[in-house]
Design brief:
5 helices, single chain, two-stranded parallel ribbon, mainly alpha
């Protein structure tokens, strides 16, 4: 049986390049809509940053994490911009870039 972090990582791995998800969305898809903070902690200790694309997870307002563990907020923004995700006033337009949550 998978632990909570493994469930979270499984979901985050599914976020396609050029799309983003919210902490709440990941929590819900991982099995518990109350895990938003747990998602944040799991991503902060991500054991495989190049494999588990934690940079694609934003807050519910479309803002990057000020505590992004792998190079800070600017690195998260750069990684997303490299995938074609645009920022306006420090936020991502969730209507345009939010992942539909379909898991393969």
């Amino acid at each position: 049986m998978k632990n909570t972090f493994e469930k979270i990582y499984d979901v985050v791995r599914q976020i396609p390049r050029g799309r983003v998800a919210t902490y709440g969305q990941i929590a819900m898809l991982a099995g518990n809509p109350h895990w938003s903070q747990v998602v944040g902690y799991a991503l902060h200790v991500n054991p495989e940053p190049g494999v588990i694309p934690c940079h694609r997870v934003l807050n519910r307002f479309g803002e990057p994490s000020s505590a992004f563990a792998f190079g800070g907020i600017n690195e998260q923004i750069l990684l997303l911009q490299d995938e074609g995700v645009e920022f306006a006033d420090g936020k991502v337009d969730l209507e345009k870039y939010l992942w539909d949550g379909k898991i393969s």
